[in-house]
Design brief:
alpha/beta; four-stranded parallel sheet; 6 helices
């Protein structure tokens, strides 16, 4: 996607952080940020598998993300923005409760004036008027 290559800054969705080693860097922003919510999702990852090897990979990914990024918080501005994001999804005919963490991450992107980079654009369907979603 040409837009992705021209972006200087962007917020990476959890799906991008997970797949980062396999994503062409030209599809990512020059300066990447993550949300504290992504760290929360990554922290849950090792507990969501019984496979010891996969658990170790997930723990390593979490530790790498913690050491690499200074995460953006879900702060007052993001909380206020969440209502707009939730309403946009509702208007698009989608229930927002099932993907609440995704919508909170989108709210952090909006509150910080950043496009949202994801591997799962469908998770953010209905938000085109609120946040730029770039699938990579």
């Amino acid at each position: 996607m040409a837009e992705a290559a021209t972006r200087d800054r962007g917020l990476l969705d959890t799906s991008v952080v997970i797949d980062l080693p396999s994503i062409d860097p030209s599809r990512l922003p020059a300066e990447s940020a993550i949300s504290a919510l992504t760290l929360a999702e990554l922290a849950a990852g090792p507990h969501a598998t019984r496979d010891p090897g996969e658990r170790a990979r997930r723990q390593q990914r979490l530790q790498w993300a913690e050491a690499t990024f200074d995460p953006l918080p879900f702060d007052l501005s993001a909380a206020r923005t969440f209502g707009v994001v939730f309403a946009a999804v509702q208007r698009a005919g989608r229930g927002g409760r099932r993907r609440v963490v995704d919508l909170m991450i989108a709210s952090v992107a909006v509150a910080n004036g950043l496009p949202l980079y994801t591997r799962n654009a469908e998770d953010f369907r209905g938000l085109a008027r609120v946040v730029q979603v770039i699938e990579c």
